[in-house]
Every structure is written in C-alpha cells, then in structure tokens.
Task: structure prediction
Amino acid sequence: MIILKSREEIEKMRKAGMLVARVLEEVAAKVAVGVTTMELDRMAEKMIRDGGALPAFKGYQPDFIKCGPYPATLCTSLNDEVVHGVPDDRPLVEGDLLSIDTGARMDGYFGDAAVSVIVGEGFPEASRLVEVTRQALDEAIEECRPGNRLSDVSAAVQRVAEGAGYNVVRRFVGHGIGASMHEDPPVPNYGSSGAGPLLKPGMVLALEPMVNIGTHEVEASADCWRVVTKDRSLSAHFEHTVAVTEDGPDVLTVVRRRNRWKKR
Ligand code: MF3
Ligand code: CO
Result:
C-alpha cells in the first residue's frame, strides 16, 4: 500500500532530508587520499545526532538480508562494491570510486540519499560512470510528477544508463519512504514506461540508481553486508528522496530548498 503524505509530513521529511544532504556534502568534501571510511562514518554520525536526528541505517535489519543489524551510519561502497559497503580502517587511495549512502530519522520521518565521488583525479572511465549515474537520477527525478506512472521513472534510469553503454542493477531497487525507511512501492531502475501505479501528489520516493560498467549481476560478499558486482567491474550509486507534488518533483534531500527541481 502506498502511503500519501500531507504537506506537514513532507515538511518534516524535508528537515530530515536537508540534514542528510548536509552530511553528504560535508563527508564528500572530506574524501581524500589517506582518509578512512571509518573516520567519515564517525563524522556523519556526530552530525546527524547533533542535528537532532538518529542515524537510520545503524542497527537496521531488513528481513531480506540475514547479516545481523547494520553496524554503521554510512554505507561506504568502494569500486566494485555496489551498496552496503561497511566503513573500515583502510585508507582511501588515489582513483577509488566511493559511493556514500546515509539516512536520518528526525521527528518520526526519514530522509535517505547517496552520492558517488572519486578520490583524487581518478580514471576518465570512472568519472564518466559517476556522471552518467548522476544524470540517470536527474532524469528519473524529472519524471516524478502527477499523471506519470512509476515505470516512467524506472525507464528514465535505464535509458540513460544503457544509452551510455552501462547496466543497471536489478537485484536492488529504490523505495517509498516516510515514517518508515522502506515503504511501498519498490522503485526498479529498469522497465518500460507507462506501467505501474499512477504517481500522485503526496507520494514520496527514494530513487536510487545503481549503475555498473559491466554486468548488472551482483553477489553478496563473504562478510555479508557488502554487495559487489559479479564481474568486479566498477559501480556507482546516487540517491535522492523526492516528493511528487502538483508542481512537479520536490527533491527533499538538498541543502537548500528549491522551488523547482532543475537538471544540472
Ligand atoms: N539507501 C539504502 C536503502 O534504501 C540504505 C539501506 S542500508 C542499510 O536500502 F544498511 F540500512 F540496510
Ligand atoms: Co534508499
């Protein structure tokens, strides 16, 4: 069942979303050769708690993953890691592709977002993957308007990613979000347009394209949480929490409120 949110609820989600956006901005700015993902995690947890919220991922245990509660505030997924990379004490090295995902619960509502960054200069192919994945999310956001159907959002991601010669992960999807981190509907990153539920004002979706240079197939790593590409090719991930409104998409996980979502 898709739960529609009132304006008041959307404003609460915006508060959580803005905090998540600030955390990601500051954490991404800290990314450099020699920094560890554990340091980034500590910084994120402090910012979220100081901001009057709780880390949404820490202690989280979805029933589809049998790994014990998630141990950290951030998911830090490096290179061939797709999602759910667990922060550790390995220093980042030049050229690493790091996806940073975090969520916060504030006043009963969730915000969830992710960015991918490259450590230092990096390889052109890694930068292109990151830019294509960001673009896929931007185009998907554009589709979040009343009258469209859910698969218009999914199709936009697939069109951009496959148009660039990459592949979208199928095993993991975006999701509705609100007073729970994961609500209906699941939001796949592939599919033909014109299908699925009609988008209505008050729907709030966490759109999260995961794009691989190689195969779309993924596998769980030996240490359980970390998900890697089957062929060990690079993977990038971006995510925003987006409300569907009469005026079009309203991206809640931005540092400053925007009246109208604009593609970069
Ligand atoms: N953005 C991810 C999601 O929506 C984060 C969940 S990670 C977990 O599923 F660690 F909390 F499981
Ligand atoms: Co999410």
Observations:
- The CA atoms of residues 73 and 197 lie 32 Å apart.
- The first helix runs from residue 7 to 30.
- The longest strand covers residues 97-106.
- The helical segments are 7-30, 37-50, 124-142, 150-163.
